[in-house]
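Dear colleague,

Following up on yesterday's call, I've attached the two folding results inline so they're easy to grep. Please treat them as preliminary; we haven't cross-checked anything against experimental data yet. The first protein's sequence and structure tokens come first.
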Amino acid sequence: MNKNSLVILSFAAIILLGLNIASAMVVNSVTSDKIYPGQSGQVSMKVENTLSVDAQDVSISLNLANTGFSTEGSSEKSVDHIDNEDEENFKFILKAAPNTKTGDYNIPYTLTYYLEGLNGTLIPSIKTGTFGITVIAQTELQYDILTENNIIGQKGKATVQITNKGLGDIGFASVRILSENGVELIGLDNQYIGTVRSDDSGTATFDVVYKSENAQVTAEITYKDSENNAQTETVVLPIKAYTPERALELGLVQKNYTWVYVTIIIVLIIIYIIYKRVKKAKKKNGLR
């Protein structure tokens, strides 16, 4: 074989090897557990060898700098080889920081492997990419009822308050009053709240008439959690109401002195009228 033929064959082999190196290894799929803020979940990466040559010293590492994530254990996994048309699962335990917001994140990775060259030497190849994971939050809601003018026999307001103590938002929240005891609902029994963000609250206010000191309402709360799943909760909320006398003792209302002022004014007007008439009568008698 002459020198030119050897150069051509060598060049062709290099091209073929380069094509193998460029496409031999594929991250075929990535699956992960549910990951919550401050908690861990397993991530499994399936690496497939799609060519007819074996890959040696295969490793994959996660590049977690500035991502808000860390690993429990090593951030790099490796195997001695992946045979042609075979695959291997690389598993990591990924942990989200406690203050991680809910949403989608891209995790960068580096895939390194070696293919055997013409003279038996191992030629390295490096591929980089990203895969996506979703951080979700456990829903933690607190329900309270706030009152206004909660005096028996009077019209007032009852407000159902939803406080979102979790790290994820809830959406499309609404409150429906299913039943009431010791309090009469006036008007609509359903109120729409909408989005209640993390560390915030939303309210639904209803017009009521209080009828007894120990009342309660049963409310149905519907919303969509951070995974966009529809949720329904039923809660019983106690309400404390007061008699007018007790409300006065507690300073919840001020004593009404209007009738006293009106009586005094009327008496003064009567006295004035009597005075004018007496004065007028005396004046007439004096003229005679």
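Below is the second protein, in the same order (sequence, then structure):
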Amino acid sequence: DHDVDYLFGQVAIDKPFVDWSGNCGNLTAAVGSFAINNGLVEAGRIPENGVAVVRIWQANIHKTIIARVPISNGEVQETGDFMLDGVTFPAAEVPVEFVAPVDPSEAVLPTGNLVDTLIVPGIGEFQVSMINSGIPTLFFNSSELGYIGTELQDAINNDEAALARFETIRLHGAVKMGLSPDIETAQRSQHTPKIAFVAPASAFTTSSGTDISQDGIDLHVRALSMGKLHHAMMGTAAVAIGTAAAIPGTLVNLAAGGGAIESVTFGHPSGTLKVGASASLADAKWQVEKVVMSRSARVLMEGNVRVPEPVV
């Protein structure tokens, strides 16, 4: 019952390696538009004007994602007035729904705990909420890591010692989370898990110089991807954020004020992002029905890549 299969490979920055262990949430928004533009969706499912509902099978994580792509005169509408912080131009809004991002047979909380203690030899002990939704993510309190939560890219990406420390913590988190049996194995995957830190809402200035008031957000979240602080927020990590916020007692939920939360607007280096999640507790186990956020997508370039035949 899907229109298109979507398989994502994360190309390593510093080595000849492709990581197939997870999804890219931001690219997910473009899958629906690409599928329509390239004839992968049945013509009968595309209205002349309105919204085309594209059912995507995410082949890395075996999950369903629904993209609602705006259509104008039978073609994908790319222009609009929807502004997504971290994206330069306004565009048409593409709501993306991650359906049951955690299978009932899987555990949203890998250890069963809302908060665990992660011991990292030579670095310290940290409180961490480990969330398996969208993409496996480790959430820490910014204060325990020595940050205030409003940091921009330069504060971390220009600090090689900090990046090395984050990577060491991430590797130990991968083992604690059950993703890898040991540190050596964990080193083979830069893509998963992600590592993020949270802080209560406070006023801050974005990387573009925009002032965001404390009342404009529910909490701060900063996340690293492929060894660097992301300039905004990864889509899959936003799924994990929405999920964690909806589960009372996680570090994300507590940073957002605690209690029952259906959606949060969080601050990131480029601005803010709102994500909603539906989660429920059944038989002492948390289940996630869906996570929803809005993205945008447009064609950036078109061309050909010529790959020579291998020399035998």
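For the second protein, one point worth flagging: Residues 48 and 74 are 4 Å apart (CA to CA).

Best wishes,
A.L.
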